[in-house]
Every structure is written in C-alpha cells, then in structure tokens.
C-alpha cells in the first residue's frame, strides 16, 4: 500500500509539474511551457469578439452624444485589453528570433492596462451626477494612464501592483463622490476579482497555468463591471441623471 501511495504521489507530482517550468528570479521573466502559452492566448483571445459585441450593444443603446462617446471610450479600452494581450502572448509563443518585437508587445500589453482602467471609468464619470471633487477625475484618470504608461517604460514588470492600487480607487470614487449609489456592489465585487488575480500573476513556476488563471480573474472582473455599466447606465428603462455640460 505504501508503495502504491508513493507511486500515485509521484504520478501526481509529474502531472502537476509537466505543465510548467521552474520558477525564475524576480529579475527575469518566466518562460511558459507550450501548454501555458496556448492557455494564455486562449483565455483572452476568446473574449475579443464578445468584448467588441458588448461594446456595440452599449453604442446602440446610447441615447445622446455623451452616452455614445462613453460607449466608444469604454469599448475601445475593453476590446484593446484583450486584443493586445492576445497579440503579445501569440508573439511570445511563436517568437523564435523576434526577441525585440516580443519586448515591444510586452510593453504595449502592460501600457494598455492603464488606458483600459481610464476608459472603464469614463461611463461613470460622464453619465452620472458627481460630487464637486469627482468632477476632476474626468481628466485626472487620463493623466494617471499616461503616468502609468511612463512607469511601464521603466519598470514594466512591476505594473500589476500599481494597477491594483489604482483599481481599488473605484470603490472610493463611488462611495465618496457619487450621490447615486447604484452599481457600487458590482464595482466592488469586480474589484475583488481583479485583486485576487494578482496572487496568480505572481505564481508562475509555482502553479501550472498561473498566468492563464490570472487572465480568467481579469475576465470575470471586467465582465462584472461591464454588467454594471450596461444595467445602471445604458439598459432600457434605467433612469439616469445627466450632468449639465
């Protein structure tokens, strides 16, 4: 029995570790296995078309200029996130001698995260009545996106920490600055998924498919936030208070 248990344990360890490579020092980037490369591409590539369709739904539900602009801003950020991520992971998987190209895509993949965050703020900032302090967030989020991109240029491997610190500000924005509290639950739950995902982002070499799992957390968080935008800002029959321009 002990021998059988030992064999089963060894088989489990073999199956567990065959899908990932050894962990690397923090100064180097983890190299995924072929299985992990495929999962990294699929977990975001699958959502490119749904994100475009979802953005189109918001566009067709728009009743005025600001709803239309906000739908385009948010849709571009959402679709761009999945498109750039898939492009980077595809190039990384099939790079062969394209090392410099891979590095450029890696940098763009990180930069687009910040613009996705800024774009996902847009519907709430443009279509909701805001307190006196939150009005400045309409332009401040884009300054933060540019600052984040500059940060990526110099320290791109550490982006997720800044990303999630920024993401946590969603809850503060809605609690402190918006008289209308609808959507706070969804925004908070989506933010929790984003924050939990960072555990897997830092687990390459410890957990097989860790990066792909992180992708899934991002998809769930983005999906919950999309639902909140659709339901509370665009859905037919939803009463909205528009800001005087």
UniProtKB/TrEMBL annotation:
Species assigned in the record: Sinocyclocheilus anshuiensis
Compartment(s) where it occurs, according to its Swiss-Prot or TrEMBL record: Membrane
Top-rank lineage group of the source organism: Eukaryota
Membrane-protein topology: Multi-pass membrane protein
Organism lineage string: Eukaryota, Metazoa, Chordata, Craniata, Vertebrata
PANTHER family: ADIPOR/PROGESTIN RECEPTOR-RELATED (PTHR20855), MONOCYTE TO MACROPHAGE DIFFERENTIATION FACTOR 2 (PTHR20855:SF137)
GO terms under cellular component: membrane
Positions in coiled-coil regions: none
Protein name: Monocyte to macrophage differentiation factor 2-like
InterPro entries the record matches: AdipoR/HlyIII-related (IPR004254)
Binding site residues for Zn(2+): 89, 211, 215
Keywords in alphabetical order: Membrane, Metal-binding, Transmembrane, Transmembrane helix, Zinc
GO terms of molecular function: metal ion binding
Residues spanning the membrane: 38-60, 72-91, 111-127, 139-163, 184-201, 213-234
Family classification: Belongs to the ADIPOR family.
Statement: the UniProt record of this protein carries the keyword Lipid biosynthesis: no
Pfam family, one: HlyIII
């Amino acid at each position: 029995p002990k021998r059988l248990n030992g064999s089963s344990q060894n088989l489990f360890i073999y199956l567990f570790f065959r899908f990932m490579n050894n962990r690397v020092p923090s100064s180097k980037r983890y190299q995924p296995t072929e299985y992990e490369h495929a999962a990294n591409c699929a977990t975001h590539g699958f959502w490119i078309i749904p994100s475009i369709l979802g953005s189109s739904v918001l566009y067709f539900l728009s009743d005025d200029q600001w709803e239309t602009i906000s739908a385009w801003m948010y849709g571009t950020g959402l679709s761009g996130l999945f498109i750039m991520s898939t492009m980077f992971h595809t190039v990384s998987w099939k790079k062969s001698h394209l090392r410099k190209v891979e590095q450029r895509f890696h940098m763009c993949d990180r930069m687009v995260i910040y613009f996705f965050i800024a774009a996902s703020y847009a519907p709430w900032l443009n279509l909701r009545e805001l307190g006196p302090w939150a009005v400045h967030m309409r332009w401040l989020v884009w300054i933060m996106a540019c600052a984040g991109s500059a940060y990526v240029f110099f320290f791109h491997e550490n982006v997720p920490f800044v990303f999630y610190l920024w993401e946590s500000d969603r809850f503060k924005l809605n609690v402190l600055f918006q008289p209308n509290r609808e959507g706070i639950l969804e925004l908070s739950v989506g933010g929790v998924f984003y924050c939990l995902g960072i555990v897997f982002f830092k687990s390459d070499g410890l957990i097989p498919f860790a990066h792909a799992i992180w992708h899934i957390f991002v998809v769930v968080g983005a999906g919950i936030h999309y639902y909140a935008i659709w339901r509370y800002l665009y859905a037919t029959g939803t009463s909205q208070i528009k800001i005087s321009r």
